[in-house]
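Summary: Need help interpreting a holo structure output

Steps to reproduce:
1. Submit the protein chain below together with the SMILES for magnesium ion.
2. Request a joint structure prediction with the ligand placed.
3. Inspect the structure token block that comes back.

Expected: a single structure record containing both the chain and the bound molecule.
Actual: see attached output.

Input attached:
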Amino acid sequence: MSVPRAVMPVILSIIGQKGGVGKSTLARAIAVVAAQGELRVKLLDLDIGQQTSVRWSTTRATSRSLSKIDAQAFSSVADGLKQIGDVDLVVIDTPGHLSPETFEVARASDLIVLPTGTSSDDLHPTTLLLYELENTGIARDRLCVALCRILDAKEERWARHYLETTGYKPLGGSLPERLGYRRAHNRGKSVIETGEAPLNERANELMASVLRKILQHVRAANGVYSAH
Ligand SMILES: Nc1ncnc2c1ncn2[C@@H]1O[C@H](COP(=O)(O)OP(=O)(O)OP(=O)(O)O)[C@@H](O)[C@H]1O
Ligand SMILES: [Mg+2]
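--- attached output ---
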């Protein structure tokens, strides 16, 4: 991916109110996609208890065929951002519960991705969190919703409609619930690197939407108009 470097690093965080919704999944995939695009990436893992992203990068590092992803655990975003080094993109993975630190992360981020499932049990807290973030002064165009763990196309359409009626257009693409994704994680791979091409394509579509958001942010920060 060719992006102007003047406003680097871009800080992108993944947050959510629920556990297991796909935060670490997206964090890992975004880091891999950006690294494939020759961006220098650092993955900050603020889930100091689980350290899912750090453990995954350690597994990944044992494979000769996979690119290395630099992941490090920190107990606060302030500590993490002090140690990012010379990178283009910082991806921040966060714990599965909300805390004052979640809002610190959001404030420190250029873009915030909220993964959500498609049931009303998932969409309701996601929408509440979106409102809460906006109420703390975070502009709507910094908030991105990613539909994850999709089981049914009809439910996905309904979820898109639900979010749009609340004023939030979800990112294009979505991540279905598939065993292949879990297997990939077990081997230090990301959801764009499974052994199944259709799964990789599906994940890549969502990742392309995230990359477009990053590019839009960079262009806007550089004062370049983008119609996309
Ligand atoms: N689309 C999917 N299909 C199948 N398995 C998935 C999918 N997304 C995530 N998983 C698996 O579900 C589990 C939880 O996902 P993940 O770690 O991304 O969630 P999380 O939001 O980071 O959870 P936590 O809140 O505990 O940090 C992992 O084992 C992951 O491999
Ligand atoms: Mg996680």
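--- end attachment ---

Reviewer comment: The longest helix spans residues 197-221. The two ends are 16 Å apart (CA to CA).
Status: needs-info
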